[in-house]
Design goal:
- It contains 2 helices and 4 strands; from the N terminus they run αββαββ.
- The relative contact order is 0.06.
- Helices cover 54% and strands 15% of the residues.
- It has a 4-stranded antiparallel sheet, with helices on one face.
- It is an alpha+beta fold and 176 residues long.
- The protein folds into 2 domains: 93 residues; 68 residues, no CATH class.
């Protein structure tokens, strides 16, 4: 079969070819733009995921440290609770009249109460004080001593405690 192609048909085909090429360029450009957007979105999503992973790791470490601190605090609280129960049982067992309690003072502030001076000396080693380095504090104020033990005696008449050893009164001027 023979087909005769006219000049107008060739021009029409060339015009269609140019239109098809232009459409292909536009489509290719749009595809490239879409691909670029997708790549940027992928990088953004990857960056967010990496930051979230790093934050999760950091939060996990903070949580682990907090859990360790909580565990230590709970153990300390348990030990203090046991000590309080022991002291309560000891106090409830005997009459308090005439009994001496020892208060450990840290720079003049009450720190811990002990049933005896020996218990206080033994426990203060855990706070950095030498168990055999205790000397009389003399007339120095309690606030000037890092660690100081004071004895108190229960006074039933006042339903309270008083110092076992009252400081020696100093004469004021010519009086006394």
């Amino acid at each position: 079969m023979i087909r005769i192609v006219t000049q107008s048909r060739i021009e029409q085909l060339e015009h269609d070819f140019r239109d098809a090429c232009e459409l292909a360029r536009e489509t290719s450009g749009a595809a490239n733009e879409a691909f670029g957007r997708h790549v940027r979105e992928l990088y953004t999503a990857t960056d967010r995921a990496e930051r979230a992973e790093a934050t999760t790791s950091e939060v996990g470490q903070l949580l682990a440290r907090a859990m360790e601190e909580l565990s230590a605090a709970q153990q300390e609280l348990l030990l203090k609770d046991i000590e309080i129960r022991r002291l309560r049982a000891e106090l409830e067992g005997d009459s308090m009249e005439g009994r001496t309690l020892t208060v450990l003072l840290h720079y003049g502030e009450p720190h811990t109460v002990y049933a005896s001076r020996e218990d206080a000396y033994a426990d203060t080693a855990t706070h950095g004080a030498s168990p055999d380095g205790w000397v009389p504090s003399g007339e120095r104020p309690a606030a000037e001593c890092k660690w100081r033990c004071e004895a108190f005696i229960y006074n039933a008449a006042s339903n309270g405690f008083r110092r076992a050893y009252a400081p020696v009164p100093k004469p004021i001027g010519e009086a006394a």
